[in-house]
Amino acid sequence: MGRLLLVRHGQASFGAANYDQLSELGHRQCVRLGEYLRERGETFEAVITGTLKRHEQSWLGIAEGLGAKHEALPWAGLNEYDSEAVIATVHPHKLQKPETPEMVRHHFRLLRDGLQQWMAGTAQPAGMPSYAEFVAGIVGALDHVRSRHAGDVLLVSSGGPISTAVGQILGAPAEATIELNLRIRNSSVTEFAFTPKRHMLVTYNTLPHLDGAAYRDWVTYT
Fold this sequence. Notes:
Elements: E1 2-8, H1 24-39, E2 46-49, H2 53-66, E3 73-74, H3 83-88, H4 101-120, H5 131-148, E4 152-157, H6 159-170, H7 176-182, E5 189-194, E6 199-206
Parallel strand pairs: 1-4, 2-3, 2-4
Antiparallel strand pairs: 1-5, 5-6
Helix pairs in contact: 1-2, 5-6, 6-7
C-alpha cells in the first residue's frame, strides 16, 4: 500500500500586491517540515507540485530541510483557484487591502459566498476553469499517483486542491470542502493511503513539525 503526503504551501503574502510569494516565515515553515521528515527517515519515490511560485518555493524549502535532490513533477491541475476572481463574482468592486480583523473576516465571507456560487455553477469567475474542470485536474493527479506509484509520494499544493481531494475520496458535497479549505494551515500535512484502486484518508491538516513551544507563533492560515 502506498502513502501520499499532501502539503499545503507555506505562508504566502496575503494582502500584498503579489500573493504568490512565500513570506520569510513561510520559507521557515517548509524548511522545518523538511527537517522533521528527515529526522523520521522519510524518503519519497516521487514529488509532485502545482505550478504556482509558492508551490515551487515550498518544495525547495522542504527539500532544503530534507536534504533531498528530487526533481518535482509540475502539475497545473494542482493549482489554486483565483480568489480575487471568485470574490469578483459576488463583489464587483476591488477590495481594499485587509488591514483589520473585520476586513479579513469580510474578505473570507465574500470568498465563501463566491465559492458556493462557482461550485453550484451559478457564477463563473473570469479566467478560471469551471468547477468540474478544477476537480478533474485534482482527480487526474490522484489517478496518476495510484497508477504510477506504490511507495511514498509527496505532493505540494494549496488549500483548495487539497480540501477538494479530501472531499472527493470521502464522497462529501462540494460545499463541505469550503469549510475544510478555509481552516487548512500553512505547511500542514494531509495523509492518504492508496492502492491501485483507491485513496483512503488517514489524517488531515496536521502540523507535527510545529509541535512545540518554540514554534507556537509559526502556525498561520494564509
